Amino acid sequence: MTASATPPEVPSQETFEAVYNGKPMFEGAPAAGVPWDIKDAQPRIKELAAYGALHGEILDIGCGLGENSIYLTQQGLSVTGLDFSPSAIQQAKQRAAAVGVSVNLEVADATKLDGWDGKFDTVIDSAVYHCFNHEGHQQYANALHRATRPGARWFIACFGDGSVNGITMPFGVQDPEEIRGVLAEAHWNIQYFGRTTYLGSREAFVGAALAGIDPEQMPADMRGRFARPGVAAQAQQTFERLQQLDDDMIHMPFFNIVAERG
């Protein structure tokens, strides 16, 4: 899923636009598609809906190609999907129309959310938080606080540590203490902090692992993140493991956080 960003080490709108328009992550890499596009809602989102955890006006922040928004609308929930990428929103609207679903999908900057004050009771963040650096996290958490109503809940799924079937996150793993500090400063009270998995495209994720092996190939806005110590070696291990798997989809280790608006 995508979100806005301008600081160093953070993917820009141009980077996301390239991915959504079928371009490779770096020159010479295969244009394998969007790593988070599984042509369906994430299993975690389906579980939250089944448990009745999502209520009121729901914001699908960084909605990407809209599969979570479409699914939740089909379950009778009121959903707005926002994404920083115009191409993602355009394609999401096409997917919604193809299955006869009417859902509000718009372009917006997740670190600002201008014009959305006090609109939402629930926020689902499916792989957005880890797109930002520390400053971006602060802006994002504060923007969501402004866009939500008292008692709103924010469900976060972001890059975590650990391994699932030999698959690790070689870059962008979040620091739990940093998350706790950012949310507390923005008046979000963490109710649960644990682990979950996130489903992604194995073929498309290969491109990301390849980028980690040689970060100089990456767009300038993401080069710093991939150049961190240890990333290249871990990316090499992940790339080799991906070659051993036959499934089209892979489960990735994520943190699972639930926070309530203070």
Plain-language structure description:
Residues 58-151 form the Methyltransferase domain. The protein has nine helices and seven strands. The protein is α/β, with parallel strands linked by helices. It has one domain: Vaccinia Virus protein VP39 (Rossmann fold, 3-Layer(aba) Sandwich). Strands 3-2-1-4-5-7-6 form a seven-stranded mixed β-sheet, with helices on both faces. Helix 5 (134-147) crosses helix 6 (176-185) and helix 7 runs antiparallel to helix 9 (231-244). The longest helix has 14 residues, at 134-147. The two termini are 26 Å apart.
Supply the key terms.
alpha/beta, Rossmann fold, 36% helix
Task: Tell me how many strands there are.
Answer: 7
| Low-pLDDT sequence parts | 4-8
In helices, the fraction of residues equals 25-40%
Average pLDDT level = 87
Distance between the termini: 26 Å
Task: Tell me what portion of residues adopts beta-strand conformation.
Answer: 15-25%
Largest β sheet strand count, sense and barrel closure: 7 strands, mixed
Describe the structure concisely for a colleague.
This protein is an alpha/beta fold. Helices cover 36% and strands 23% of the residues. The chain has a 7-stranded mixed sheet with strand order 3-2-1-4-5-7-6, with helices on both faces.
